[in-house]
Amino acid sequence: MHIFKQLLPDISRLNGGKKYFQASCFAFIHSSPNSPVEVHSQDQEVVIALGSNVGDRLHNFNEALQLMKKSGVQITRHGCLYETAPAYVTDQPNFLNSAVRAVTKLGPHELLGALKKIEKDMGRTQGIRYGPRPIDLDILFYGKLRVRSEILTIPHERIWERPFVIAPLMDLLGSAIDSDVVACWHSFSMHSGGLFESWVKLGGDSLIGKEGLKRVLPIRNGLWDWSMKTSVMGILNLTPDSFSDGGKFESVEAAVSQVRLMISEGADMIDIGAQSTRPMASRISVEQELDRLIPVLEAVVRMPEVEGKLISVDTFYSEVASEAVSKGAHIVNDVSAGQLDSNMLNVVAGLRVPYIAMHMRGDPSTMQNSENLQYDDVCKQVASELLLRVRDAEVLGIPAWRIIIDPGIGFSKNTEQNLDILMGLPNIQEEIGRKSLALSHAPIMIGSSRKKFLGEICNRKAAIERDPATVASVTAGVLGGANIVRVHNVRDNLDAVKLCDAMLRRKRSFPQ
User: What is the pTM of this model?
Assistant: First the structure.
């Protein structure tokens, strides 16, 4: 995605450039931490950077976020998660870095005190400057204020030289500047193009994946850099009525055999679903879904072949998601993005696993109604509707660094709209990026496999005859930016993915 290339020439037209930024801002100068000028009465929007390289780094992040909430810091947005090489003092482990936007009534020095207490409570000691630490919390911005005191400088004085700080800071913004506070943050940059230009001057997105700055997603017990290759997710339907293979894998033995086949053919992930979401499917209860799912999931988890693979549970019920994760599933794949179970987002936040949020209007029984197929611009509207749902997820505690986005091919879309999405993944990313650059960087999954629109185009009534068309759709999706492809036929689609990945690597090797 080339948001920044397009953005810089437009910044003065959109916002009046530096003059607009400065007109939106004011500064308080604090001569000491005991200065009477503090802000208490109203919420202030702040940006806080996080870093950790001692112990369980991700656990440290999770604990720090919880302690911030208890201290009166309400987190509203998360940056992406980065694994970074240490700076300044290089003989130490790699860091995890990110940043959050939040609102608080705490004044600047009160906030500093709260963050320092969190660091101390989590085991941070004085140590050497820039040395190892279980948690490091820095205030990057505080409302529209500049703060200068003996113990606090805002904006943080070393933002501009640190890619590992600027990268997650950029994630907290949108390419469209939509508030005076954000305009003020841009004004703190030394460049007329604001923070966007500061990031580009440091190297911008060309730094990601290089020089010890990897964008990662925590999964299982590790960190996944999804830019390395496209992942293939094999589909295991345990339903009697799924459109492609309903009834084939209802027994534990048949399901295990199919998983063994998909893994032997190269699947990276297995997505297990026990509730049909085909058009007009009837909904079964939580208990019925668990009865189908759990015996198979327990058997699959025990398979030696599954070692190193990822297991996803395809469900829109929070109780099923919780039970599946307790039995060994690593990912929750929700076709409703939290719309069909009001408790889903809270539950997934507590499970601390990756969450696939898919776009759908209505439910499987109503999603293909004429009302749900009305779009003026399907890519823009899918992006904006998905963004609303994942923003809700963030506020409830699912960080952007755990979210995977699925535009929902075949769900509340007709044939032409499915084609628009396959060709328009960059447009979806760009539209999401107008409000949230972090979520525009989220991995994208597509699920076009054997779907009805392929049969309509290719005149293939039987789902199993649509594999060649599936390969073509997967190819288009991967070349357009998909990071995960969800398929029935692993072998043929893996070959397509390998070729696409090779083409994309070759393209990246060309001089810009």
Answer: 0.92
pLDDT class of 23 with cuts at 50, 70, 90: very low
Q: For residue 210, give the DSSP letter.
A: B
pLDDT at 240: 80
Work out the end-to-end distance of the chain between its first and last CA atoms, rounded to an integer number of angstroms. 14
Q: How far apart are CA 160 and CA 155, in angstroms?
A: 10
DSSP string, 416-458: HHHHHHHH-HHHHHHHHHTT-HHHHTS-BEE--TT-HHHHHHH
| Radius of gyration of the chain from its Cα atoms, rounded to whole angstroms | 24
Active site residue 486: yes
Residue in the structure block whose two tokens are 């109604």: 369
Q: How confident is the model at residue 10 (pLDDT cuts 50, 70, 90)?
A: very low
Among residues 486, 491, 498, 507, the one annotated as catalytic is: 486
pLDDT at 246: 54
Residue with tokens 């609303």: 388
Nearest of 217, 483, 512 to residue 500 by alpha carbon: 483
Q: Which residues of 111-132 are buried (b: 16+ CB within 10 A; e: fewer)?
A: bbbbbeebbeebebeeeeeeeb
Give the C-alpha distances (Å, rounded to integers) separating 163 from 11, 139, 166, 227.
Answer: 22, 16, 5, 19
Angle at 260 between CA 323 and CA 471, to 5 degrees: 100
Amino acid identity at 209:
G
DSSP 367: T
- The answer to whether residue 214 is catalytic is no
Query: What is the Cα–Cα distance from 149 to 427, expressed in whole angstroms?
Result: 45
Q: Check 214, 292, 402, 451 and give the catalytic one.
A: 451
User: Could you tell me which residues are beta bridge partners of residue 235?
Assistant: 271
- Check if the beta carbon of residue 353 is closer than 8 Å to that of residue 331: yes
Q: Which two tokens stand for residue 264?
A: 């032997």
Kindly report whether the peptide bond that precedes residue 132 is cis, defined as omega within 30 degrees of 0.
Answer: no
Q: In whole angstroms, give the CA distance from residue 398 to residue 75.
A: 11
Q: Which pLDDT score, from 0 to 100, does residue 478 have?
A: 98
